[in-house]
């Protein structure tokens, strides 16, 4: 007679999972111990540009894209600051043209 797989199927699959988990941990730990010294030597002896060249291509490209995005944002911030300064100068033409800030106390004292 055949027994249904439902009776002992749960315990054997749990055992397989635990065995695979332990085996995977052993393999990953071993690889980490083997490659960690090489990685730490590469990181310690390399400056930033050399390190970026040693990284996989997609990480290096991502770093370039991030730097380009930073530059674009910095340019846009500079444009916004310039526009704010222009609008502020149009709204308050009596302010000093050299860009010095005038506090509200100085405005009240002058009136």
UniProtKB/TrEMBL annotation:
TM spans (from-to): 14-36
Ranges of compositional bias, category Polar residues: 100-111
InterPro entries, A to Z: Ssl2009-like (IPR040377)
Gene Ontology cellular component terms for the protein in this record: chloroplast inner membrane; chloroplast thylakoid membrane
Keyword Transmembrane: yes
Region Disordered, residue ranges: 92-111
Record carries keyword Lipid metabolism: no
Coiled coil regions, renumbered to chain: 63-90
Alphabetized UniProt keyword annotations: Coiled coil, Membrane, Transmembrane, Transmembrane helix
Protein name according to UniProt: YtxH domain-containing protein
Gene source species: Salix udensis
């Amino acid at each position: 007679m055949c027994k249904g797989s439902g009776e002992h199927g749960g315990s054997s699959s749990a055992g397989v999972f635990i065995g695979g988990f332990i085996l995977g941990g052993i393999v990953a730990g071993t690889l980490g111990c083997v490659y960690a010294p090489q990685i730490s030597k590469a990181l310690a002896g390399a400056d930033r540009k050399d390190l970026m060249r040693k990284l996989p291509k997609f990480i290096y490209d991502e770093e370039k894209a991030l730097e380009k995005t930073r530059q674009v944002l910095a340019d846009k911030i500079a444009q916004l600051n310039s526009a704010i300064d222009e609008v502020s100068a149009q709204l308050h033409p009596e302010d000093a043209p050299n860009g010095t800030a005038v506090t509200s106390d100085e405005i009240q004292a002058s009136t």
